[in-house]
Specification:
The complex is a heterodimer.
Chain A (H helix, E strand, L loop, with lengths): L4 E3 L2 E5 L4 E6 L6 E7 L6 E6 L5 E4 L2 E5 L5 E6 L8 E9 L2 E7 L3 E6 L1
Parallel strand pairs in A: 2-11
Antiparallel strand pairs in A: 1-3, 3-8, 4-5, 4-9, 6-7, 7-8, 9-10, 9-11
Chain B lengths: L4 E3 L2 E4 L5 E6 L6 E7 L6 E7 L2 E4 L8 E5 L5 E5 L8 E8 L9 E2 L3 E5 L1
Parallel strand pairs in B: 2-11
Antiparallel strand pairs in B: 1-3, 3-8, 4-5, 4-9, 5-6, 7-8, 9-10, 9-11
The chains are: A mainly beta, B mainly beta.
Chain lengths: 112, 115
């Protein structure tokens, strides 16, 4: 059973388009992280969200944590080729906060 | 050096040989994690350390896999009698694991190829 479902699995868009990636679960998380990974490198932290309903912005990226802390979304405005990569969400649960559950990732390709 | 480091960056070995992968976490981070990632796939959890103890070894694929952490710092992942299906990128991460906010910082990974 996959605790964190990410969608879509693959996304290919043109430069300048907007997109949203979703991370959904039936479990409640104490915190949720989004990472971006480029080929040949380890995942790099983008954001941590903790409070239900929280919205964080990082330049053209907007992250939202669901009110019930069961889901999250990542919205990219005016995507650029440099946004290409594997986007991963990870949630830590109150009952086992030392271990995070990772989604399977969304592979984003932004074509120039 | 503020980040997580891993060595070697690449390892090519023959089937049946043993390999050791090393992880140096961020100084002061109490938690350390090992993951495995196949090409284009998500992360497969292997093992988690809190200090020198491993509360969760549930992800280790078989008894050929083992890991230890000494001095609350460096960790070594050992794979005995390697098989071709062990080929993957092995990622290490560390975190402060503070109050349920488990933000992990990753190393660059070790790419293991078993011939």
């Amino acid at each position: 059973t996959q605790l964190l479902e990410q969608s879509p699995q693959f996304l290919s868009i043109q430069e300048g388009e907007n997109l949203t990636v979703y991370c959904n679960s039936s479990s409640v998380f104490s915190s949720l992280q989004w990472y971006r990974q480029e080929p040949g490198e380890g995942p790099v932290l983008l954001v941590t969200v903790v409070t239900g309903g929280e919205v964080k912005k990082l330049k053209r990226l907007t992250f939202q944590f669901g009110d019930a802390r069961k889901d999250s979304s990542l919205h990219i405005t005016a995507a650029q080729p440099g946004d290409t990569g594997l986007y991963l969400c990870a949630g830590a649960m109150y009952t086992n906060a030392g271990k995070s559950t990772f989604g399977d990732g969304t592979t984003l390709t932004v074509k120039p | 050096g503020a980040g997580v480091s891993q060595s070697p960056s690449n390892k090519v070995t023959e089937k049946g040989k043993d390999v050791e992968l090393r992880c140096d976490p961020i100084s002061g981070h109490t938690a350390l994690y090992w993951y495995r990632q196949s090409l284009g796939q998500g992360l497969e959890f292997l093992i988690y350390f809190q200090g020198n103890s491993a509360p969760d070894k549930s992800g280790l694929p078989s008894d050929r896999f083992s890991a230890e952490r000494t001095g609350g710092s460096v960790s070594t992942l050992t794979i005995q009698r390697t098989q071709q299906e062990d080929s993957a990128v092995y990622l290490c991460a560390s975190s402060l694991d503070r109050g349920g906010v488990n933000t992990q910082y990753f190393g660059p990974g070790t790419r293991l190829t078993v011939l």
